[in-house]
Amino acid sequence: MPNIAVVTDSTAYLSKETLDKYGITVVPLSVVFGEEAYEEEVDITTDEFYKKMSESEELPTTSQPVMGTFLETFEKLGENHDAIISIHLSSGISGTYSTAVTVGETVEEVDVHCFDSEVSCAPQGYYVIEAAKMAQDGHSVDDIMTRLSEMRESMRAYFVVDNLNHLHRGGRLNGAQAIVGSLLKIKPVLHFENKLIVPFEKVRTAKKAVNRVYELLDEDAAKGEPIRATVIHAQRPEKAEEIRNHLDQKYDNLEIDISYFGPVIGTHLGEGSIGIGWYKQKD
Ligand code: MYR
């Protein structure tokens, strides 16, 4: 039975309980306030981060893990594993994946297989959990990588931000440059296309935007297949709970989680953002 280690980065925002249960290793990204860098959820909690951001005159920035962190992680895991699967946030919004690939190629002790989730947050976490479960069950690297690609076919993530300035300022909003002025006054539904964040549809109010995401979920959920969904929020637990209750009452083929936008992603989306992600589970 192969002994495969699963690595991800902190933007999957997996709970300690999940990390311990599946033996997942996390490489943290950081938020930077002025001269001070904080590894997210190591040096700064999500609550502390949003408080600090709201009080800070200068908005924070983010940084990906340095090569040395990946090297140390891969080499250590290589001591007692046959292979490593390293799953990261979309390569279109961060250099994390490509750093993992570069470092993975230099490590001699162990084969490193990197997977670009083409998304982030809890949807990325779903890939990580699936890979870790399969590794525990003794599946091969090939089987796991094939399943991750299959999951990507049905993975969806839509999100709505309270204020587009964060995304715009951080340079992570694509396909909207020409209309950004007018976009800043409305609430577009955003999603990933070819690894980049682009407006999916322009909607005038946050309520209409969330309703539009319900319609999109409806198209998939109506097929009756088992779906795992997550409501992701940036300091809006009540709203997330309301959406979860709504979805829970409407469908019986949906397993719904609540998750959050932690410091690094919160830097780029801002407080108040809400997202819904889902994928088709194995029958
Ligand atoms: C870095 O500095 O390398 C990190 C950059 C992170 C950019 C995050 C942009 C927003 C991502 C939204 C994800 C929503 C998933 C449902």
Automatic annotation (TrEMBL):
SUPFAM superfamilies: DAK1/DegV-like
PROSITE patterns per UniProt: DEGV
Transmembrane portions of the chain: none
Family matches, as InterPro entries: DegV, DegV_C, DegV_domain_contain
Keywords recorded for this protein, A-Z: Lipid-binding
Protein name: DegV family protein
Superkingdom of origin: Bacteria
Coiled coil listed as a keyword: no
Keyword Cytoplasm on entry: no
